[in-house]
Design a protein that fits this description.
Mean pLDDT: 90
Radius of gyration: 29 Å
CATH class of the largest domain: Alpha Beta
CATH superfamily of the largest domain: Bira Bifunctional Protein, Domain 2
Distance between the termini: 15 Å
Strand content: 25-35%
Helix content: 25-40%
Low-confidence stretches: 447-451
Length: 505
RNA sequence: GGUCCCGUAGCUCAAUGGUAGAGCAGUUGACUCUUAAUCAAUUGGUUGAAGGUUCGAGUCCUUCCGGGAUCACCA
């Protein structure tokens, strides 16, 4: 490909400047740089030191320029803030100022040395005595202007097209400071979850991503192949069955934070790969796990929000209170107007749903219909943190049955902001019951084929050695991050979300 | 996968079926306290792609590509 085709007109202009710098003996990408202060530290040191002389060498990216005859201003941004450069012919030398005007562009990384001072307009700035290019930007950043309104940087005409933002996240991050904040918050959430679990004697573990048998959730997997072993492998759809093997092995409290992969539709709350937290807690039941969940999210709120309140899409959500606990039966009764105890079989339930004008899936079990009722009529109403509990047995093959009610299991889901954020149960630890459930599930799935799950014989063998009673828990990190950062779309909290490949990639 | 909406300059956006434009960025010039600097001039387009209707298409139609919303799917 020729240079003409490879570069845009704007890029070719910058390429010429880069070449000119090289001709003059200035490496536009030097291997080492000097930095005495971050921009924020330089400003803080100047403010703290009264008006004492303060020499500083700062580095960063040029975000704005205002060029005059014998004077120029520029703002440089680094990871900590921004600092105005003041370049005056008298101090820098007329030739050096001209050099700056001729060869430096928005987006370039520079190293600037000088003395801190306050401009007539009152802004703490660096009176530059020496300036050096440390990384030339060939492509202009897709942003225009900064404005300071009440101390906040407002960026005008910035990159807004979601497709470009996701495909070129580097440009999005470089240009949209609020996007950087989302991912700092995400890191804070992960950090505080680990802190909380570590403080409660949990052991962080790592289990296989490539699995010979997938399980622990209902989803189609991605399939791959190991050449030497001549064996198909699946990217995990959950960690559950591996983590519970560890309880058999005597690890009482374990957790894993990692990636799950599900070969399903992509939408506002689903990405094919997503980050999950699962923990398993020996000798706890699902009620203990509910309390623990409340504590854990309260802790995260304190650490990353500094309190218990958050705002999600116009709703005020408070993590500080005990979460209301509603059985599935009561919730469906209240929000969908159906008393499911009166409809003990799939046909009668389907009939009453039809009477009420609700959509009824074909071939669904009674449990599946109840889940649909929850999804359509209950879930969207659960803005404040809420636990729904006691789920239908046939949609929960890994959960322990409710004593005295074989139709439900000890399972709960946590809801917030109108969607599901976590799923937990008193884990089934009876190997014979588990085998029966797998077989039952195998039969019902065989009818609809597609999602036929192979039975995990090794998991059953592990259970036969004896698994302590335990409570297990899973939570989508992406959705929690959506809530904490007030983002309506999961792609906004995933650095490089999955998009269809384009021809030019 | 179904339905609806969108794709115009590097970025943000205009343009009754009738000459493709503006602001910012860029380029040239002026300017020693600017901060969306200002002032003057100016470059930049296969309107996502390919067909079709029409005297004439950014605009209407078809197909395709990509994105968004929504539904379906996600025990």
């Amino acid at each position: 490909m020729s240079e003409e085709q490879q570069f845009t007109e704007l890029e070719r202009l910058r390429l010429a400047k880069l070449e000119a710098l090289r001709q003059q003996g200035n490496d536009p990408f030097p291997p080492r740089v000097e930095r005495s202060h971050t921009t924020a530290a330089a400003i803080a040191a100047f403010e703290a030191g009264g008006e004492q002389p303060l020499l500083a060498t700062i580095v960063g990216r040029i975000r704005s320029m205002r060029l005059m005859g014998k004077l120029a201003f520029a703002h440089v941004e680094d990871g900590h803030g921004r600092l105005q450069l003041f370049l005056r012919a008298d101090d820098l030398g007329a030739e050096n100022l001209q050099h700056f005007k001729d060869y430096y562009d928005l987006g370039d990384f520079v190293e600037a040395q000088g003395e801190m001072f306050r401009t007539k307009a009152g802004e703490v700035s660096l009176n530059v005595k020496a300036l050096r290019m440390i990384a030339k930007a060939l492509t202009p950043l897709p942003a225009a202007k900064d404005e300071i309104v009440d101390g906040e940087v407002v960026r005008h005409a910035t990159l807004a097209d979601p497709e470009t933002r996701y495909r070129q996240r580097y440009a999005d991050l470089a240009v949209n400071p609020q996007v950087r904040e989302v991912f700092k918050m995400r890191a804070g959430i992960l950090r505080s979850l680990r802190e909380f679990l570590d403080q409660h004697d949990f052991l962080e573990v790592e289990t296989p991503v490539l699995q010979p048998v997938y399980g622990g959730a209902a989803a189609r997997p991605f399939v791959t192949h190991h050449n030497q072993l001549k064996q198909d492998l699946y990217l995990r759809i959950s960690f559950e069955l591996y983590l519970k093997r560890l309880l058999v092995g005597g690890l009482e409290r374990v957790y894993e934070i990692g990636r799950d992969f599900r070969n399903e539709g992509v939408d506002r709350t689903h990405n094919p790969e997503f980050t999950m937290l699962e923990f398993y807690m020996a000798y706890a039941d699902y009620r203990r796990v509910m309390e623990f969940t409340e504590e854990m999210l309260r802790y995260v709120g304190r650490q990353v929000l500094g309190g218990s309140k958050l705002s999600y899409q116009g709703h005020e959500i408070d993590l500080g209170n005990a979460w209301p606990r509603i059985t599935i039966a009561d919730a469906v009764h209240e929000f969908a107007g159906i008393d499911i105890s009166k409809y003990p079989d799939v046909n009668s339930l389907a009939a009453v749903m039809k009477d009420k004008g609700y959509k009824v899936r074909v071939g669904g079990s009674r449990g599946k219909l109840i889940e649909d009722l929850v999804g359509d009529h209950v879930e969207p109403r659960l803005i404040q943190p809420t636990f729904l509990y006691d789920y239908p047995r046939e949609v929960s093959p890994l959960a322990k049955s409710q004593p005295g009610d074989p139709s439900t299991v000890e399972r709960f889901e946590g809801y917030m902001g109108g969607f599901e954020i976590c799923n937990a149960f008193s884990e089934l630890n009876d190997p014979l019951d588990q085998q029966a459930r797998f077989e039952e599930m195998g039969r019902s799935l065989k009818a609809g084929d597609e999602d036929l799950h192979p039975m995990d014989e090794d998991y059953l063998r592990a259970m036969r050695y004896g698994m302590p009673p335990n409570g297990g828990f899973g939570m989508g990190i992406d959705r929690i991050t959506m809530l904490f950062t007030d983002q309506p779309n999961i792609r906004e909290v995933i650095l490089f979300p999955h998009l269809r490949r384009r021809e030019d990639e």
